[in-house]
Design a protein that fits this description.
Elements lengths: L1 E11 L12 H11 L3 E5 L14 H7 L2 E3 L15 E5 L3 E9 L7 E9 L2 E9 L4 H17 L7 E7 L9 H6 L3 E2 L16 E7 L1 E8 L3 H6 L5 E8 L1
Parallel strand pairs: 1-2, 7-8
Antiparallel strand pairs: 1-12, 2-4, 3-4, 5-6, 6-7, 8-10, 9-10, 11-12
Length: 238
């Protein structure tokens, strides 16, 4: 038995600061609606200083999108944790969520959400890894250790998404993840105005089959952030 496809996306929204140096949450909302995924991992979703308020308000999500933010419960003003957030469609069942503490020089973390698709549980992990290759590899091992030893129970499938900050294909942290995950061939997503690097990634394992994937190019996406969104559509098998 097969259930409808699941579309996921990852987007480093750079606190809604566009390539034209204008901060425009409305433009980010426009791009997200263009992508139209069921689950979205966001990076740099909160302001960096002060109360670290969410760039996209609950009001904006409720009135202008089909998504809700996974409630990570870290700060009242924030959407995510260390800038990482996950959006899911409001009609999707959220089973649970969690934080993954990552070894780091500067504050870094990853977030998880487990959803139910039919009778299949799918764990989503959103992350923004370090600029340092050494710390990226340590962070990859921390994510893999969490997934192998999570007290939240096993999932039928797992999807990793985010800004991995790894310029080299299947080297460094991608080599570590690639030992147990498939890597979607997305294409270049950075810099948005002239993409030269595949920094944004989607990986998966378990009861999923990749149907199609890519990088979202639009006029709004080229100006909304310095990264382009990446997406993948999966057949979910039972």
């Amino acid at each position: 038995m097969s259930i409808p496809m699941l579309k996921v996306a990852s987007y480093n929204i750079r606190k809604a600061l566009g390539t034209d140096r204008r901060r425009s949450p409305d433009r980010i909302i426009e791009v997200l609606n263009q992508v139209g995924a069921d689950v979205i991992a966001l990076q740099e979703a909160d302001r960096r200083f002060g109360k670290r308020a969410a760039v996209l308000s609950d009001f904006m999500l409720e009135h202008h999108t089909p998504w809700r933010a996974v409630p990570l419960g870290v700060r009242n003003e924030s959407m995510g944790w260390h800038g990482n957030a996950i959006l899911i469609r409001r009609d999707h069942e959220l089973i649970g969520c969690d934080l993954i503490h990552l070894p780091c020089l500067e504050p870094r973390g990853a977030v998880t959400a487990t959803i139910r698709a039919g009778n299949v549980t799918i764990r989503i992990v959103g992350m923004h890894l370090d600029l340092s290759g050494l710390w990226r590899r340590r962070q990859a091992m921390a994510v893999l250790h969490y997934l192998d030893h999570s007290h939240h129970g096993p999932a039928d499938a797992t999807i990793l998404m985010g800004d991995f900050n790894e310029w080299r294909p299947m080297r460094g942290c991608m080599l570590d993840f690639g030992r147990s995950f498939h890597v979607a061939p997305l294409g270049r997503s950075y810099h948005a105005t002239r993409p030269v690097a595949t920094l944004d990634r989607i990986l998966w394992r378990g009861g999923l089959e990749l149907a199609e994937c890519g990088v979202h190019h639009s006029a709004a996406a080229r100006s909304a952030s310095d990264h382009l969104p990446v997406w993948a559509r999966f057949d979910v098998k039972t």
